[in-house]
Amino acid sequence: MSPFDEILSEYQKQPAPSLSSAFSANVFREIRLRQPAPQESFWDILVAGFFRPKLLAGGLVAVFVFGFAAPLVSVQPPQQDFEIFSPGSRKLPSGKIL
């Protein structure tokens, strides 16, 4: 017999150590902890983002700022002549369609 076989036979004669009462629960807990977390899809993140108060408040502020600032920086002056059926309506942008 080789020395390795002797060591193995000595280990075989020793009784198995007793396990704790929560051993199986601990094993399953470790397995669950080591599993990767489920990946959230793009839609999950998008929907979750819409219901955050800070994001909603920021969006509303942006809408109001752009809504009030857009008329102030418009390039074209407003048209005061709304008579589309008059002979001078060909000069209006809406009169070019007809």
Question: What's the quick description here?
Answer:
The protein has 98 residues and is an all-alpha fold. It has four helices and no strands.
Could you list some keywords that capture this structure?
mainly alpha, 98 residues, single chain
How would you describe this structure to a colleague?
The structure is a single chain. This protein has 98 residues and is mainly α. The chain has helices at 3-13, 23-34, 42-50, 53-69. The radius of gyration is 39 Å and the shape is rod-shaped. The model has no long low-confidence stretch (mean pLDDT 79).
Q: What is the overall silhouette? A: rod-shaped
Alpha-carbon Rg, integer: 39 Å
Mean pLDDT across all amino acids: 79
Helix content percent band = 40-55%
Supply the number of helical segments. Answer: 4
Q: Give the structural class.
A: mainly alpha
Unreliable stretches covering 5 or more consecutive residues: none
- From the N-terminal CA to the C-terminal CA, the straight-line distance is 108 Å
The number of strands is 0
Please give the largest β-sheet: none
Strand content: under 5%
Order of helices and strands: HHHH
Secondary structure blueprint with pairings:
Blueprint: H1 3-13, H2 23-34, H3 42-50, H4 53-69
